[in-house]
Design brief:
mainly alpha; 0% strand
Length: 118
């Protein structure tokens, strides 16, 4: 029975440390429900309840959906079935080459290095 108490204390401490550093590194404008400084006070003073409150009520909502999640309202689900091969031939709008094989200057220089007599 003593090991169970030790395990609960250990898990509570790990959750508390995680929540503390997560709150510490989260930008202030992204916290929910309370200002960042108040979340820090709640986490420190109310061990381990403050950490649990931070995890459920204070952390910023995730911005990008995790693979396997349903798309948010208004988002189009991306899959291989929705791809159109003609989309890959369209210019990207970027003036810079994407890779070295797309850069004409690089290719000319490469040809000069391979065959300097030309």
């Amino acid at each position: 029975m003593l090991w169970l108490g030790g395990l609960i204390t250990f898990v509570s401490t790990v959750v508390w440390v995680y929540a503390f550093f997560d709150a510490l590194t989260t930008p202030g404008q992204e916290t929910r429900n309370l200002p960042k400084i108040l979340w820090m006070v709640v986490i420190v003073l109310f061990f381990p309840v403050g950490a649990i409150l931070w995890l459920f009520l204070g952390r910023p909502r995730r911005s990008a959906p995790v693979q396997g999640d349903a798309p948010a309202e208004g988002e189009v689900e991306s899959s291989a079935d929705n791809l159109d091969p003609s989309d890959f031939a369209k210019p990207s709008g970027s003036r810079r080459p994407i890779g070295p094989d797309d850069d004409p200057e690089f290719l000319r220089d490469l040809n000069r290095r391979i065959d300097p007599d030309e």
